[in-house]
Specification:
Blueprint: E1 2-5, H1 12-20, E2 27-29, H2 32-36, E3 40-43, H3 49-58, H4 62-66, E4 72-75, H5 77-81, E5 85-86, E6 91-92, E7 100-103, E8 113-118, E9 136-141, E10 143-144, E11 151-156, E12 160-167, E13 170-173, H6 181-194
Parallel strand pairs: 1-2, 1-3, 3-4, 4-13, 5-7
Antiparallel strand pairs: 5-6, 7-10, 8-9, 11-12, 12-13
């Protein structure tokens, strides 16, 4: 059973449709028991870290996600929420991956970073099966995690930043795979089938 955690954000439907296109019917839920018994979890996010963490707290889902034993994928803000802290509102996040999110130092480039950009990975990983190094995906964000020990793929927009992260069974994608065409669909399929 694939469960999309109802974080109260706006992109729940587009994530659901993307999963349905892969032949899987996901459940959107904020029920702790449903989430705890899922085979795979997706934590989507749009908006601010403070709002998203507040929504999770109100739904009683912070510890449920922190204690998840199944493969869990954070998308966009959902990825940032897997870290320890976001400087967006200076808020503590879920803390399952020891990374922090800070405002992109984009130089003369406008924020948010919005549009297609390439991702690069140094090592093979099941998430990247069938994905070309330098593949194009769709981003919308102003905050990002730096490149570090848990970076699986990186991108660049004024500075290098983590595009995909992973630790144990927790993964994050800073971009929107549900808006990234065939590459995004393959990444989601790999998450469903290979991790």
């Amino acid at each position: 059973m694939m469960v999309i955690v109802d974080t109260g954000c706006a992109n729940l439907a587009s994530v659901r449709f993307a999963i349905e296109r892969l032949g899987v019917t996901p459940v959107i839920s904020q029920d702790a028991d449903v989430i705890a018994n899922a085979d795979k979890l997706i934590v989507p996010g749009v908006g601010t870290a403070h709002f998203a963490m507040q929504a999770l707290a109100e739904r009683g889902l912070i510890e449920v996600i922190q204690n998840a034993q199944q493969p869990t994928l954070g998308i966009c803000l959902g990825m940032q929420m897997l870290g320890e802290r976001s400087s967006e509102g200076d808020v503590a996040t879920l803390g399952v991956i020891p990374m922090t999110s800070d405002k992109l130092q984009s130089g003369d480039l406008p924020l948010p970073h919005m549009g297609w950009n390439q991702i690069y990975f140094d090592k093979a990983h099941p998430l990247f099966d069938g994905i070309d190094n330098g593949a194009w995906v769709y981003f919308v964000h102003s905050y990002a995690m730096p490149v570090g020990d848990y970076t699986l793929a990186k991108s660049e927009y004024g500075q290098a930043f983590s595009a995909v992260i992973g630790k144990n069974h927790f993964y994050g994608m800073q971009f929107h795979p549900e808006k990234s065409g065939a590459v995004g669909a393959k990444l989601l399929q790999n998450f469903l089938e290979k991790v």
